[in-house]
Each structure stands twice: as C-alpha cells, then as structure tokens.
Amino acid sequence: MSDTVSIRRKEATYYDNLRTILRKHFPTLSRDAMIIQTNNLDICKKEYVDIPGELWGDIGPRIRSIKIVTRSVTRPPPETYLGQSDDFYGADEDSALPPKQCYIIATVGANSVFVPRGRVTDYEDLVVSLVRYFPDLVQDHVVVQTSEGSNIPPGMWPDISQDIGNIKVISRRSRKMTIFVELLTGETESVTLSRSALVSDLADLIYSYNKYFVYQGEWLKFDRKLSDYNIREGSTVQQVEHSSKPWDWD
Question: Which CDD domains match (predicted)?
C-alpha cells in the first residue's frame, strides 16, 4: 500500500524544494535516485512520465498530483550537471501553450520522459538530450521510432517532429545497422545490413542497377565499405542517376 501526502504548491515552486519536502515526508527515499512522475496531462495517456528537474517550473503548475519512484542512475540527473545551460536547453517553454504543443514523450524501455519540443528541433539535439537522461543509451546506437515502431530517418525529424506526440527510443548494438535511402522516386526506404557491408551490397539490396549513391555530398564507390564514409546507424544516403556522376569519378 502506498502513502499519500498533500503539499502546498508554494512550497514546491522549485524542483530542489520539492525533493527536500518529499524527503521530510519519506526519509527513506534516496534524493539522488528520486524520480518525479505524473500522468495528469492528456499527452500522458494515463501512463506515468518522468518530469526532468529543469522542466518542473513549467509542468508543475499544470498538474494536480505526482508519483515518486526510485530508479538507480549511473550519472547525476540532468539539472545537476547541466546547470543553467540555456545554450543547450534554450528558452523556457511557453506555459500558455497546451502541453501537446510543448512536449514530446520519449519512451525508453519501461520508462518515459517529457522532452521539450523547442529544444530538440534537430535530431542530434534530441539524441544528446535522451542519452543524458538515459545514460544506458549509446549515442551512436540510438534509433528513434514512432509510437507504432517505425524508424524515423534523422533527416526527416525536423519536418515531422511537430506532428509527433510520442516516440520510442531503442539502442541497437548488433553487428548490423539500419540506414535510410532517399530513392529517386522521392520515397525513403530503410535497409538493414552489416556494419562492414560494401556500397555494392547496398545497391544489391535495393536493386540499384545503373544508379549511384551520395552521402553528405560525396559519391560512394561500390568497392568501398559504407563505414569508409562514416555511414552508421540511422544515416541517410541519396540515390542519384548515373548521368549525374562526376566526369573524374571512378
């Protein structure tokens, strides 16, 4: 059976104050492992979601109840080592906006956390933010998916992120990787292949006869490995016509 206490809002204006008060009520709680959650917002879909300390000032006034859990962490929570790093986190969210316009909910395994939309408009910022909050993730192995489990190409994130309310995050450490190919038709196809695969292996998988590939402006030679071009999990390459090939490219 769980215990419940009432806390005055003015006593919990700041995240550190809230944790101090909770420790007074529940002295056995570990301050460093204390995680504050809520399911009060519509975007939570009745599931409990972690509230990072740096977001408490905006989310706290929006909710009526919280749940406290303890979870072992291998690094300090973000607010303790990022401090007031506005250059990373950006400006505070506009509290006048509804929550679904302010936050994305990211789920890693059995745990979920609020992620502010305005601070993760770039895919790399999203991944860095998630790795800092979930230190078991490996940055180079992170794959972001829709709530239905479809991989989201990094290049598409800025265009579709505003329409996404929930994401799943997985970390792939296998010898294979999934990359994305922007086809001449305008469609994007995901391909899974060995991390040591050749460019020719990629061409075989998508039947790219008499077609070539470009990654970050560089043409890919069929006898070279994808890794030679620093292509890794989640990278996006473009398919191009043979006629576009540079005259001095062999």
Answer: Ubl_ubiquitin_like (cd17039)
